[in-house]
Amino acid sequence: MHRPTDLPDDLLRALPKTDLHVHLDGSLRLPTLIDLAEKRGVPLPSTSVSGMSELVFKDRYDSLGEYLQGFAYTCAVLQDPEALERAAYELAWDNINEGVRYIEVRFAPQLHMSDSMGFDAVLTAVNRGMARAQVEENGSQGVRDGRDPPFRYGIIVCAMRMFTGAFSAWYDRLCQVLDQAPRSQIFGMASLELARAAVSCRDRLGIPIVGFDLAGQEDGYPAHDHVDAYDYCHQHFLMRTVHAGEAYGPESIYDAITRLHAERIGHGYHLFSPELCGPAVGDPDAYVEALAEYIADRRITIEVCITSNLQTNPTIGCVADHALHYMVDKKLSATICTDNRLVSHTTVTDELRLAVDAFKLTPDQLRHTIIHGFKRSFFAGTYLDKRVYVRQVIDAVDRVFRAHGFAT
Question: How far apart are CA 248 and CA 220, in angstroms?
Fold first, then answer.
């Protein structure tokens, strides 16, 4: 029998897993990025895997700004249906090949739209790639004989808190149309139009758009600027997650939960950072404690991305200093995610390895963390379908644990 914390790599790889927070444009295969760039005439700093790894997609970054530089190249090659379908298809298989049975891929369609490719075409292309991989995997012997849970996926559409870089031209056009409208109003209107497009595409085309997200710089760009978009999603049964507490304090998380009806929080790293509370919070320690209790009681799930947090916030230091240990101690609903497989050079298995080693997770703690991901997914199906699927997953998880000598 194994020691309580002796969880080997082959166990982590064999366990059915989820990734509820993974960006399409941050998770291309590097050889694919280079190939697409060559065929589409997109200049890169290097045309070799080693060169791009040294110059752009590094093991460590000095800041969030440096971390985000690589997206200029990935977005540049994802400007036609064929590239989007290929990226989605390969992402699905990269997950399948390490035992991930359910993913929710997210991206901002605005970054890929053009006069020749509208919203529906962008979503159709991504869905086509994911669906093709799903059909292939679910025809495998392991799935057909019941040993492996089927592979499933959903798509999350990302709105932006603000417009910079690739969004600047769109922002300029909106400013011209709306003349002197406040900046926050323009950002909010753009998000509302995206929410309407997502719901329409889901309902008309049957594409499994399962959620709506808000990404971008938190400081100075509050979530409540986008309340109309989130109200629209709420009214049309589109699930909601928000990037919050990644680079700003607990109040950003509070805003996402209370104003945007967020059912999950992306990153949530600074949930336990009372020192980042603003002057409006009289007792930061009590505020953080109450917020954590609220999140725990309502099972609001935190999408934890360890490597990404360490790379975008070097002051964290090491994995053992990550806020996940507070989440585990307080038994919050937390699920382990990659954020960006390429930019962070990681996999779900790698992220689980980091968590298990740093926080000495027991088999029971690991089991709960994995199952949280399936239970708190935005599953594209009925509630009864989801119950059946989650039961399949739990049975498979327990079989894997037993096969590796752990009682469940």
Answer: 10
Q: Which domain holds residue 381?
A: 9-403
Residue with tokens 């929080």: 265
Number of domains in the chain: 1
Q: Specify if 26 maps to a domain.
A: yes
pTM above 0.90, yes or no: yes
408 domain residue, yes or no: no
The catalytic site residues sit at: 246
CATH number, domain containing residue 347 = 3.20.20.140
Strand partners, 243: 266
- For residues 317 and 91, give the distance between their C-alpha atoms in angstroms, rounded to a whole number: 30
Q: Which residues pair with 152 in a beta bridge?
A: 102
Whether 247 shows a pLDDT value over 60: the answer reads yes
Q: What is the pLDDT of residues 3-23, one digit of tens each?
A: 445 899 999 999 999 999 999
* β-bridge partners, 106: 23, 156
Cβ atoms of residues 118 and 112 within 8 Å: no
Could you tell me what percent of the chain has a pLDDT over 90?
83
